[in-house]
Each structure stands twice: as C-alpha cells, then as structure tokens.
C-alpha cells in the first residue's frame, strides 16, 4: 500500500486506521510525511519508521508479524529487506520544479539500490506523471523520462493505474496526473492489479493498494540446505558411531513403558459375560468345545443389548418373609 499523506499528523493517522486495519497490508509506504517517525500505532499492530525534511520525507508502516531489516533510510528513500527474501523500496521523488542536479542525484541513488537477485517492489510518490502539463514549469529532464530509463535499464515493470492526483486548482476536481507508482521486477499475474481508493485518501492523492503474488520464490530459498552425506562404513569413526547408536536404541527401548494390550471386540464381550456369570477364573474358550463357546458368546451378546452393565444379587432377609 502507498499513501501520500501531505504531512503526517495524529489526525491523519486516525483517518487511515480503518483502511489499514481492514486491509491489513504487510507494508504501507507513506510519502511526503514532513516529520521524523519512529513509533508503534494501532495498539502495537504496526510500527512506523521514517526520516523527513521540512518539505519531503518517507516512512514505512510495517505490520508487527513481518520480519524486516532497514538497509537504507534517507528523507526520500527507505529500503527494507523482508525475511531476507524480498526488497521493498519506499520513496518520495523530487517534483518537476526541483533543480535538475538534485533530480539526477536522486535517480542515480535509486538505481544503485535495485537488487539483481531478489524480488523487488518500489512504491511511493515518484512525481513522474506521463500526462502533459501546461501550468507547471519542468526543470531539466522530465521525471517520467527518467523513470522510463530506470525501468528499461533494470527490467522493471510499471503497474498501470488511473491518475492518482487531483490538482487543488482543478475546477472539475477530477484526477489529472499519475504521480504515485508501483514498480516490480517480476511479471505481473493476471489477477495482480492496483486498487485506487479515494474515499479514505488523507490528501489530494489516492491510496494505492497492491496484492503482490510472488511465483519465483522457491520454498527453500533463504533456508539452510540439507546436504545428504554418506559415511564410509570402514572408517573407525563411522563404526564407533554405529555402535553408540545401537546402544542408545537399546537403552531407550528398555526405558519405554510397556502399554497394556487393548482387547478386541470378542475379548471385551467374553469379559462382560464372565462378569455377568461371576466366573472370572475361566479361560476364554476351551479348545475341545469351540462350538459351545461360540454359542455362549452369541447368547451373551443378545443379553448385553438389554443390560447396560453387570448386576449384583442382593440377599437381604433370608427368613422367607415377603416385603410389601
């Protein structure tokens, strides 16, 4: 997510609360903050870090469950490494009226930060609209031409978006220029698209939301490699290790408690029958009377359907008196 806040304040922080917490993006790039930031917000759900000057500034709002490291931080560019797998660059580019020397310095520094071995996402207000303008003076080379040179040189893709900025002097209050951009060095999928939100915009720039689906990161990338190695059985170290492993196996086998064997259905039925008859000293089935044992089991099974458990006979008064 990329947002030009046109001056960060507590009021705008509260204004962004709904869209941020409802969408829950991993990273939010804030441009034109105009104030240094290092705080946790929204009940410690996000951390905001950034540097700024009197008329510029860029910051990153990072979700708390994201593992990150900051490799560079200036008033116009902040570089984050996410899980040591993805590089995310947040930026606030100089305007067209800025001196050509300063613009050239900015674009050269941005080009040096682009990695060649990791997925990359660049987001923010680059002030590089391709639409023609007649009301503003452009100093030196237009920013959009510099942006095209950057993408051609490093193989970046500019995600297409509608105009993201509304001029305060516009009479119809319609978006007129595409100043905010999102660039990636991977191929955009068919479902990947940038969503513009004007309803929750805190300034005259739209809120850009992009769901980035990475298809080029292997599961084992960045993880320790499990190298399979085969030991020579003739080596003394290998033989000693095999003997030690066998002793450990026997030791833990002795320590393992012997669990009682579970009875099968026939055994449980026979135990129930013995409890009903009070003949718990009998064996399961006499080998010479197999058929008789089967009949006894089936007979007891029919009785057990009506009897939920063992019963006991109570012998009270044996004098022969009947109780009423």
Automatic annotation (TrEMBL):
Keywords of this entry: Endonuclease, Hydrolase, Nuclease
The protein's name: Endonuclease/exonuclease/phosphatase family protein
Stretches with biased composition (Basic and acidic residues): 295-305
Ranges of residues in domain Endonuclease/exonuclease/phosphatase: 3-186
Any Pfam family the entry gives: Exo_endo_phos
Region listing for Disordered, in residue ranges: 295-324
A GO molecular-function descriptor: exonuclease activity
Annotated Gene3D superfamilies: Endonuclease/exonuclease/phosphatase
Annotated organism of origin: Gregarina niphandrodes
